[in-house]
Amino acid sequence: MVVVVAPPNPIRNEKIQAVDLPIIDLSAERFQVRKLIVKACEDYGFFKVINHGVPKDIISTVEEQSLSFFAKPVSEKQRAGPSDPFGYGCKNIGFSGDMGEVEYLIFDTNPISIAQRSKSISNEPTKFSSAVSGYIAAARDLACELLDLIGEGLWVPDTSVFSRLIRGVDSDSVFRLNHYPHLQNKQDFCKDKDTSSSSFSSDISKVGFGEHSDPQILTLLRSNDVGGLQISPQDGVWVPVPSDPTALWVNVGDVLQAMTNGRFVSVRHRALANSSKSRLSMAYFAAPSLNACLSALPEMVTPEKPRLYKPFTWAEYKKTTFSLSLGENRLNLFRISSNDECFMD
Ligand SMILES: O=C(O)CCC(=O)C(=O)O
């Protein structure tokens, strides 16, 4: 007799906890701001920034143009795909078979390739591409400013040690627009005709973007007024992140965790597609150049806090990320074990 055991529903066994997440006002005194950012990165690897300086008109043009694109028939959207790795993708996340109730557009940050790609995305490609490139430039400036504040707050001698990694034209940063359909949309949004009867059921907790940490240095995330994002400060505990279209959320990525020798946490997060309105998020992932060699800053390594991770290049780390499934803890693969004593300073 074959006994079929239903897989445990991870979502049902979780604890949802409301937490007041840190809010950083960038117009406040610099010495206060840098202290609060360091604390937020240590406690949560996550915080909200207000008075961030990313122009509102650019944000609303990117949002309007993206929503018009995602509202198009699937066959038209597919003209901007597949995402290999840039362009339109639907449900498939990454290269290891992960799936979610999400469709997306991914771009590199080169204005020329954005302009080229925009021709298959927008009916007003110049308007779309200049808004996307404008958003990316403002997000990069903001990420550099936050990384400089982090350098100052950690009292490292070279305060631009982090921002320098993402400033150059060879930085491997990417920009991603995610669209999570609303609950009423029972049609399979990846197909032109609804062939499956309930491919998107009204199940209250559909995973839009599964649990993961971001591999890069820092992520800046902005969404419309629809919630769904959750962070996990500890295993099995999820904290809902309230939507605030006027603010940006910042999360520490794996590289920053490695460079601070584990002092900052690369926060695990996910997005649920469980609203009656569709969620649109835009994420700028600040990454180094492929050949950047990444390791804990000497100031972060002490006899009490020995080096946690082996040095790696961004190309190596990216390759490892692509070879694993979304939720895998990749940084663990670079952890120094007691057999690796020779890596110690
Ligand atoms: O849409 C969101 O809120 C989360 C998106 C995300 O985690 C990602 O794009 O990596």
Describe the structure.
This protein is α+β, with helices and mostly antiparallel strands. The chain has a single domain (15-334), classed as Sandwich (Jelly Rolls). 26% of the residues lie in helices and 23% in strands. The protein is built from 8 helices and 15 strands. The strands form 3 sheets. It has an 8-stranded mixed β-sheet. Strands 1-10-9-12-7 form a 5-stranded mixed β-sheet, with no helix packed on it. Strands 14-15 form a two-stranded antiparallel sheet. β9 (229-234) and β10 form a beta hairpin. It is globular, with a radius of gyration of 20 Å. It starts with 14 loop residues before the first strand and ends in a 22-residue tail after the last helix. The site of 2-oxoglutaric acid has 11 residues, from β6, β8, β12 and β13.
In short:
With 345 residues, the chain is an alpha+beta fold. The protein has helices at 30-43, 56-70, 74-77, 111-118, 125-153, 164-167, 254-259, 314-323, and strands at residues 15-16, 23-25, 46-50, 87-93, 98-108, 174-180, 207-212, 218-223, 229-234, 237-240, 248-252, 268-272, 279-286, 293-294, 312-313. The chain is built from 8 helices and 15 strands.
